[in-house]
């Protein structure tokens, strides 16, 4: 009984009652989002698809609209001629 009295004196008034009224907190489940594709892979996929769309657009523009061979749009000699025309050499 003496130890209970000492413990009761140490606690502030009303603190014992608050401890009894508290319910144990339930741990909240945090849903972690698992990504199917990591961000670095998404960036690579976007870059590859962009390059592919650019190549297809060049081929359509040069071959269909420009009445040339579509594969010539991807050759370096064609681009050298275009650069020379633009720069005036």
SSE layout:
Blueprint: H1 2-10, H2 15-21, H3 39-65, H4 76-87
Q: What are the defining features of this structure?
A:
89 residues; 62% helix; mainly alpha; single chain
Give an overview of the whole structure.
With 89 residues, this protein is mostly helical. Helices cover 62% and strands 0% of the residues. It contains four helices and no strands. It has helices at residues 2-10, 15-21, 39-65, 76-87. It is rod-shaped and about 105 Å long. The N and C termini lie far apart (105 Å). 1% of the residues are buried.
How large is the radius of gyration? 37 Å
Low-confidence region ranges:
none
SS class: mainly alpha
Note the beta-strand portion.
under 5%
The main sheet comes to:
none
Global outline: rod-shaped
Please tally the β strands and state the result. 0
The share of residues in helices is 55-70%
- Sequence of secondary-structure elements: HHHH
End-to-end distance? 105 Å
Supply the number of helical segments: 4
Mean pLDDT: 81
């Amino acid at each position: 009984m003496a130890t209970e009295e000492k413990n009761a004196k140490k606690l502030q008034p009303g603190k014992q009652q608050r401890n009894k009224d508290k319910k144990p907190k339930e741990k909240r489940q945090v849903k972690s989002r698992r990504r199917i594709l990591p961000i670095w892979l998404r960036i690579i996929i976007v870059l590859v698809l962009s390059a592919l769309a650019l190549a297809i657009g060049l081929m359509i523009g040069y071959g269909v609209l420009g009445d040339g061979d579509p594969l010539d749009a991807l050759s370096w000699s064609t681009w050298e001629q275009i650069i020379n025309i633009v720069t005036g050499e």
